[in-house]
Amino acid sequence: MSFVEAPFKISIPDSDLDLLQQKLSLATFPDELENSEWRYGVPLADMKRLVTRWREGYDWRAEEAKLNEELPQFTRDIEVSGGHGRINIHYVHKRSEVENAIPLLFVHGWPGSFIEVRKILPLLVQASSDGKFPSFHVVAFSLPGYGFSEAPTKPGFTIERYAEIGNKLMLALGYNEYVTQGGDWGAIITRKIAQIYGGKSSKAWHTNVALAEPPTLTSQPLLYLRQLFRPYTAADTAAL
């Protein structure tokens, strides 16, 4: 079940920005081993440069305004099964000018955010004058506990629950059939969407992360036994 959509604008309180400035001004830096470079963590010079940038050179209000201008944002309560109740979900929803464009659910990774969709969004929604590439209605939601989405309050929030929210959000927006894209944590979630809702609602899955493990006697006994008697070829090894 889903509930009423509400427009959303990013508006970080001044008190939070003031607190960040206080923390930056109170930063203390450790000593550093000579010529250690990146072997023991972030070099001291780089850390000082980043702190200075955030303290003196980064205009959050200007960036906030750009995000609000570029990304049409909304929130909506989604009813989540497993006793988790309603969770308020933040998302970007940009429709293509092509009416029959393909609905696309974009799922960000960790420790990322919905902003990952920012640079590709204009390219995905634009129309192709010669019909050589498809256009998309794009939905990019903030995972629960990330960005501006409410976090779960109970344990047991499994990968199936993230997939459930993505599917219910697309259905609530009127997209009964859609495709997905995800990388990193988003790859795992969109894979689960394909497993649970594939064939009915989720029609295709694109990912830039391929996860696989060698077969074991317990996970894939037939494949495991086969590779014992027929070792990998040079082509197999190259592919791996």
From TrEMBL:
GO biological process: epoxide metabolic process
Keywords per UniProt: Aromatic hydrocarbons catabolism, Hydrolase
Tree of life domain: Eukaryota
Record has Hydrolase as a keyword: yes
Domain Epoxide hydrolase N-terminal: 6-117
GO molecular function, one term: epoxide hydrolase activity
Gene3D superfamilies found in the cross-reference section: alpha/beta hydrolase
SUPFAM superfamilies tied to this protein: alpha/beta-Hydrolases (SSF53474)
Family that this chain belongs to: Belongs to the peptidase S33 family.
Protein name: Alpha/beta-hydrolase
Species lineage: Eukaryota, Fungi, Dikarya, Basidiomycota, Agaricomycotina
